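Structure tokens please, single chain.
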Amino acid sequence: MSEHQAELEKQLWAIANELRGNMGADEFRNYILGLIFFKFLSEKVEIKANKTLEPENMKFEDIEGKAEYIEAVREDTVKSIGYFLEPKYLFKNLANRAKNKEFILEDLGLAFKYIEDSTNGEESSDDFSGLFGDVDLTSLKLGKTVEDKNKLISEVIKHLNDINFNFQDTEMDILGNAYEYLIGEFASNAGKKAGEFYTPSQASKLLAKITTYGKERVRTAYDPTCGSGSLLLKVAKYTKVANIYGQELNTTTYNLARMNMILHGVKFNNFEIKQGDTLEDPQHLDKTFDIVVANPPFSQKWGAGDNFLSDERFSSYGKLAPSSKADFAFIQHMIYQLDENGTMAVIVPHGVLFRGASEGVIRKFLLKDKNYIDAIIGLPANIFYGTSIPTCVIVVKKNRNSDDDILFIDGSNDFEKSKNQNYLRDEDVEKIVSTYAERKEIEKYSKKVSMKEIEENDYNLNIPRYVDTFEEEEEINLDDVVEKIKNIDEEMKEIDETIKNFCDELGIKAPVI
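Here you go.
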């Protein structure tokens, strides 16, 4: 990590802590992340506009109030970066007014609206629509009076204005990574709610490295429960992805995902994040994807109505996942969207590996009829926000040969223990990835298992059935134990005698027999 990166992260988190007051971390998150994003958009539009105006020997600030110039620059800017903002609404101008203790709340709201309205009818419209919906400037959480609200927001803006994001001098990843860092810090302070929007970085890294292994570039990557988009962005870090797709149910998190994409330099026409329930209202069924990754909500309830039996995603299995546990429903959905030559990795609770009834039928179909499951990877307990249960990764490929084995890896014992949860270290991730890539068998860690053996175990995929991690205890020599007890008895007799002699000298009764 560069010095600038570390300093930026430190400054941003300090601002978040200093200014949120009594507001919960998960509540203040929307404001600090929304305003950082607004600063980013503001500086980006100014850089682009200044470049457009170079031939005229003018700066963006110079065209304020000049309608003809504004329209020409707007058209060029929207075509290039997807949106536009007038000079008077620039972050730095609002910050200067805040320093002068002016009322800026109304104009800040207008700036948000201006950005969204500038994309109407444009290709970028879906990516910016409602993007600032969770930065509620009227909320009582900001203060009781309008003046109180203005004061808090002004303080945040003034502090952010003092930070140099160095857009032109550094890689986009620096701000993007700092944004990811903040999301992670908010997640660690948000308890159970964190699981709704964030997959811990090392878990994302593991899935990304497994699914991108041996691939220099891919056409598409997809996450049906994309949260803040961190998992998709991690995939894009390890291979060149032409187009990114995702769906997210929670509106706040959906907005966060779109912001995250833009902040990481993903162009508006290279990503498509949709909002809605992936199982009930899937938005990308007309597409298949080279890489499919997800960390779906564990054992979530879902509709499981009879209408799903005629849904192409589920119909061939003959059974639906139980309404009380949607784990297999997400797996079936992801497999349906996976390209014939693609790779899929999904994080699920261990129950998926061995539960019976309808889940047992689905699991058997995937193994015996389809031969899609390529690997099962056990992870340590307590590495995810909001739950301490142990989890696993299921890796799926559709293009496996009929005689291919399934690789089982037990990575549950390799982690670093931190204050509130366990943590996958880089070496733990690398060990899993290299073992998977080379399909290595390591004693008490990994094993290749034939379909015949799995069939003999009634298609139960519980990892301990195949990877024996039992450590024999050292044998105890009972003769040695008896000898030690005898020696202790002799020593006790000597001590008792010594105590008795002292007591005799003092003329008191000895406390020994």
